Amino acid sequence: xxxxxxxxxxxxxxxxxxxxxxxxxxxxxxxxxxxxxxxxxxxxxxxxxxxxxxxxxxxxxxxxxxxxxxxxxxxxxxxxxxxxxxxxxxxxxxxxxxxxxxxxxxxxxxxxxxxxxxxxxxxxxxxxxxxxxxxxxxxxxxxxxxxxxxxxxxxxxxxxxxxxxxxxxxxxxxxxxxxxxxxxxxxxxxxxxxxxxxxxxxxxxxxxxxxxxxxxxxxxxxxxxxxxxxxxxxxxxxxxxxxxxxxxxxxxxxxxxxxxxxxxxxxxxxxxxxxxxxxxxxxxxxxxxxxxxxxxxxxxxxxxxxxxxxxxxxxxxxxxxxxxxxxxxxxxxxxxxxxxxxxxxxxxxxxxxxxxxxxxxxxxxxxxxxxxxxxxxxxxxxxxxxxxxxxxxxxxxxxxxxxxxxxxxxxxxxxxxxxxxxxxxxxxxxxxxxxxxxxxxxxxxxxxxxxxxxxxxxxxxxxxxxxxxxxxxxxxxxxxxxx
Length: 483
Prior knowledge:
By secondary structure, this protein is mainly α. Helix content is about 65%, strand content about 5%.
């Protein structure tokens, strides 16, 4: 469900096409490039002989994931119905064809390149499918089960397998093309070297996208996974470490995060992963808490933030002792991916239509699809906010542990704990003071959104002002803690 809820949306298709094109250029020995890939996209939509040859080899199956005779017969019978259901299915299949084109564009480019070099249809189709062969799942029952239940696990496994085989087949060519990507990455890093906007980005965002600013417009270009980890994340983080931008701890965390995300696999089935995130109160990808420290002092129904969906807010208001809106949003995103986000955005649109409260003028990074690739100032979230909450959690645990030891009649152990962490008491005071001000900023944002007299552009201006002040507060607190 999550896989379909992610891959069926245009932002994923675009990001996946960008990542695949960069990765394919490295692992195929240059047999494809962005221009050839775009031609392959058009070729797939036109259902040319090249696409049909690849389909005959097992690729481009137009969404027929259930391929038993009964399943295919049922799907075809439904498709050729002339009622509303049949028309809806035809529209869905037409949309799937676009998704298949974005998936097959590099395969077709490889196929046509090999054909131009004299390869047979069978040989060219085999090499094209070998670019990323999802039909490969292994013979071990457990591996096949995990590939079915863990979203994108098989794609990651096949990507790593192809990466290793490409390196062994042509070490020099692999290294040369990888070095081109590394050089481009370092050029972007040099352009962002003294830019505070880049420094404020969350660490996961730096490692997942290339970031380019054109004026005040922030462009995010998706990094390929395996190729990006080796030829983008590693050289950029190494340059930042040598240049003093990342301290040893942050450098180590970044390398571990990048390579564990890419080369290690969490075998947790998708059925349980969102529930485990709820239990841990943490988004496992970003590392950010689902509910903030201060939200947990409120009744569940009142735990909201600026971006909480209208649907979850209404459910929280209806069941204030049982439903946490921020947790419900996280659960929907965890199980449904982009589909869940779209459902939440649809509830916001409905709420705006029926409400008599003016809504703030939308930013460009609040527009569906566009927001994945384009951001604008001020950023809604910065790494300093993450760093602040991490610092607050750490010092709170130390100080509260010391207080508990003292209360249990063990002052020596309490003094020893505080002596081992001499800055904890002062940072605890700083964290509490800053946390309360952060909570005040959240309340101010909610008041602006609820105001019935302010015009939309006034609301946007005021919200941006509050965001700037909140981001600056978090940065000052983190920098003070590091001194």
